Amino acid sequence: MSRKFVLGLVLGALVPGVVRAWPGDLDPTFGRGGKVVTDLGGSALGRAGLIEPDGRIVVAGLAYLQELPGPLGPPLIGLARYLPDGTLDPTFGNGGTVTSDALSFGAYAIVRQSDGKLIVAGSAADEAGSSGFGLARFDSDGTLDSTFGTAGVVSTDFAGGDDGARALTLQADGKIVVAGFAGVGADSFFAVARYNPDGTLDPSFGAGGKTTPDLRGIAVAVVAEPDGRIVLGGTAGGFALARYDAAGALDPSFGSGGIVVTASLGVLTSLVRQPDGKLVAAGGGGAGSSVALARYDVDGNLDATFGTTGVAETRFDTEGPVIADANGLVLLPDGKLVAVGDDDTLLNTSFGHYSQFALVRYGPDGGLDASFAPCGAVQTPFGLAFSGADAVAQAALLQADGKVVAVGSAERVTHDSSFALTRYGGGPASACAPAAPGKGGLTLKNFLEDDRDMLRFKWVGAGVDRTDFGDPTATSDYAFCIVDGTGMRAFRMTATAPAGGDWQATTRGYNDRNRYREPEGLSPVKLAAGLAGRARIEFHGRGRNLLMPPLPLPAPVTVRIERSDGPQCWQATFSTPRANTEREFAASSD
Q1: Is the pLDDT of residue 418 over 80?
Q2: What is each CA distance from 551 to 236, 444, 493, 521, in whole angstroms?
């Protein structure tokens, strides 16, 4: 069975039932409605993070003290530590944040040593003006640790060119393994170095503690295996892996001379190891517009039991201008995988584009896990297009309680970026509240001129309390998706109505009247509470930003409405359309 999915393909049986939380719901006990945004004083990009044993969250990234529109200059190290509820930890740095010029170009990775000290990796400039692998260590209170390297910093040159560290991990013996690239002339090559816990190079590894294979590209992920072997992941003409033995020599039992390249895929961004020794890599598909996962067995061969011949790809639409990539990956205790990244919709207006956090959960076999959210996956906006909206998730973290934290950045009104976090963790999947028979309606019109495309949806069903809608004026985003009956290519449309913006409270609920219909063509939206038969939800949309699905649609067609920060969702199913042509779909609910 094919595993090259369009998002939301296998949603399973849509059976009415009691409404309760979904695993992909935002956690309302975290930050503001499940989201946290932190301004570091200029512009900041969250790149990595970790969960401490007591549940505190540390984020590392790039911090620019200047703000747009002026020149930003080279980034500093940016750090922030949060309490489990998402508030900044006042015992860390300056009110919870740290900026440091210890490294030349910010921090791309972070680990925590057993004593609570934090090591970040990036690049460190040398006296000749080039850069090497850079490590900086901070005490648990956020101060630079002067006992590490030289005044808290370690710099390692490979071949006299510009080098950079992009990933690091700790071995069981406390040694520090760092992966990245080494510059040789105009080329960059995979590079890896191993350090003792005090930051000195480990002479038992490679040539004096470092080694570079003959593999042009950049390593951005590293895994330390229990037997001491080390696996690098990155991009070299496709997904690329290199495995070393404990002494730093390429492992001839893995791939071809220790190297594996999957040229059919795009940019690799993340790598995890399963308990059985198999490796799962995440990144972008070969076309650059899909989330791609690939699983390799212990010998480096694609695992045919995962996805389609070892690869699972997921798009966020069927034909619209959406760019989606996985930037981070986390393995759950039950063998499922959560990939995080962004979906970047190219809008057909002066606003240009609009991106939001995106999460997809897969089963252990690489199949899309439709029980994750009502629309099959999660898209979390941070506002309206180009009004503090563009958001990208760069890393996924797993808490001890099973909740997933996504780490990245979100734009502010000034177009400067801030650290951004979201936390997800609802209950088991459940059915959505169905529309009453004949009371729900769906009309889609797909014209040759996309500006005339039109959507009209109505839900009328069981009683709805006003509190069920949350508060769209502040924290409750709404997602709208259309699922058709083809099974393998069912996810035909998704759009979001972000919180804030033009939402207004009414006597019975909330209305959203966004005259620009941004970011994705929806407006007006009406949420009206009431008793059974009087409660009503309406979504309207118009224009090319709707990403209108191709018509006709195979029946049955199901529409789902999802609230981001609560368990509520609503749906209507349409099995017998009165019109289903290339230009129009129209039906009343079953």
Answers
A1: yes
A2: 40, 9, 12, 18
